[in-house]
From TrEMBL:
InterPro entries: Methyltransf_25, SAM-dependent_MTases_sf. Keywords: Transferase. It comes from the Eukaryota. This is Methyltransferase domain-containing protein. PANTHER family: PUTATIVE (AFU_ORTHOLOGUE AFUA_2G14390)-RELATED, TRANS-ACONITATE 2-METHYLTRANSFERASE-RELATED. One of its GO terms (molecular function) is transferase activity. Pfam families: Methyltransf_25. Residues 69-166 form the Methyltransferase domain.
Length: 242
């Protein structure tokens, strides 16, 4: 669930612009956490709510006979497994080998064919040579954008994997100026979360437009999800490959 970019500067919402390698910290953190993720009821419920919000809002994007999906920063596949019955195939991509291993272990245990759903470890650059040149009808990225230092580059990369007319769906924390002010937040939170206040509609619109995506839509998707000590709301942003 970490960024494919390396050390960069965080300039969102007036945050400090010191250089920090969020990519390396996220990879280390999620490799360690991977075995415990699927057993967490809070994560399970959040994944169900996110998947339901995407399918209810945009039912035409989920076609069992046709839709090919990439789940970027897929983690252990909690969201992937919720939507995979409603699409033709799904490829999970994550920089954490621990997360990818757990993803594929769960798929194997359930006896699901690898042609339908699997995950691979990759640090995508969007240069046209990756993932065997695959393009997708739908790219999703859920509850991960706040971990990426360079969200502009990530958005460009994700858009590059869409077919013409394909859609990018991003679900993440809705901007709240008080999110990062809690003194009880653990140290690892500060090490792995690049955007501690979430994202506003205006920010996401600018990111999508810069990434070559049109027909932007933004809505509140899931409310009152608890992250550490805070209750947060999640947005759902959509853009179409121009």
């Amino acid at each position: 669930m970490s960024d494919s970019t390396q050390s960069t500067q965080n300039k969102v919402h007036g945050h400090s612009t010191h250089t920090h390698d969020y990519a390396a910290e996220n990879q280390k953190h999620f490799d360690k956490e991977a075995p415990q993720v699927d057993a967490n009821p809070q994560f399970q419920e959040g994944a169900r709510d996110i998947a339901r919000a995407m399918r209810v809002r945009y039912p035409s994007l989920f076609n069992k006979e046709e839709t090919t999906v990439m789940d970027f920063a897929c983690g252990t596949g909690l969201v992937s497994r919720e939507i995979s019955p409603h699409v033709k195939s799904l490829l999970g991509v994550d920089v954490s080998q621990g997360m990818v291993d757990q993803f594929n272990l769960r798929v194997s245990d359930q006896g699901v064919p690898l042609e339908e759903i699997k995950a691979t470890r990759a640090e995508l650059k969007g240069d046209g040579t990756e993932l065997d040149g695959q393009k997708f009808d739908l790219v999703i990225c859920t509850a991960a954008y706040h971990h990426f230092a360079n969200v502009e580059e990530i958005t460009r990369i994700l858009a590059s994997f869409l077919k013409p007319g394909g859609s990018l769906l991003v679900v993440d924390i809705l901007y709240n100026e008080t999110l990062h002010t809690d003194p009880d937040l653990p140290e690892h939170f500060h090490q792995v979360v690049a955007h501690k206040n979430g994202f506003s509609e205006a920010e996401m619109r600018a990111l999508f437009e810069q990434g070559g995506l049109g027909a932007f839509e933004f809505t509140e998707a899931v409310t009152q999800i608890k992250i550490l000590t805070k209750e947060v709301n999640f947005f759902l942003a959509k853009g179409i490959k121009v």
